[in-house]
Amino acid sequence: MKKIAVSIIFFCFTNALFAQYTFTGKLSGLSDDDVIELIPGATHKDEKAEAVATVKNQTFVFKGNLKEPRLYYLRIKGATGSYSLFLENGQIQLTGDVEFSDRNGQKSVNFKNISVAGSELNTIYAEKFAYKQLLNKEYSEIRKKHEVISRQISEARGAKDQAKVDSLSNTEAGLKLDSDEKSFFQRVESYSKKAIFDDKNSWWGPFLMLDIMGWYTEQNQPWFDEFSPEAQQSYYGQILKRELFPKKFTGETPSFTVNNGETDLSFADLAKGKKIIVIDFWASWCGPCRKEIPELKKIYENFSSKGFEIVSISIDDNKSAWQKALSQEKMNWPNFLDETKAIREQFNIRSIPATFMVNETGKIIMENFRSNELSQKLGELLNN
Description:
Glutaredoxin, four-stranded mixed β-sheet, alpha+beta, five-stranded mixed β-sheet, 3 domains, about 375 residues, Immunoglobulin-like
């Protein structure tokens, strides 16, 4: 019996050790010596190619071993555009066409008529995101319904006519647009949360949370506890954990530059003559961030004359949404948009709100605090 048990264990071990995938692709439109790249997906990082293959007769082959299924972006080196697909151990075949074009001097590729065989994961992946098509249709209808007022507000904002933006936003049409958009995004959150927690007992749950959500707030941190131990320990579970609970940032304040619309400003420029500076990362869509703003206004009014400054940096991808939030919140301190995403990377921002208190020597002395903690600390530092 012992020999049988040992044989079974050895078989399972060697089977896991030597299990691998063979991914073969054939895409008409490819040329010999084109280089195909496999880029890890849903990691919230700007990943480099994990593997490359050279095309021969419109065909390429990748081989490897995976402990669990992984999402990859299939790209052609030197061209923009990609195709997302799952790989797992086994024989996987992809067929279809590619079509190249020139977009403003940049080579671009469009993947067409793609078919994947040998793994059901890609079909399951598409099914899990079917709800997005319904939401996209609904949002298109909302934009069409409010096309006139949306265009008017956008034009006023482009002309930097804040008075007109405020006036249009408070009309019956403007208020209805705002109400419909808020209701829509509440439904987006509801649908997304359901999709994530329908799969809380497998790696799918953390993967979907990474794939669906680009950023997190402190309200999302308890979600991690809802996943099963298996899901938490999975490849995507561990990535999600690092995103939700990033390591504390320590040391000197990174040197960064922002633009106020006219000129570049360094952090040293912003901090000149100040005793305490709070760097506040936020976004228009971040509920906890905006909930803090009224208290920050009170704190700023009390301490700004004593050498206190706030520098707010938005991680919004939508510049118009950021500008709209600025017009609504009316913050009287410097505000900037991190359009290149460079500043958030310097500060290792993985969730918001994220706040850093910097002293006059440029050292970070406190981070990720709330308004009551900030008020107390400023009282200690500036009321002497």
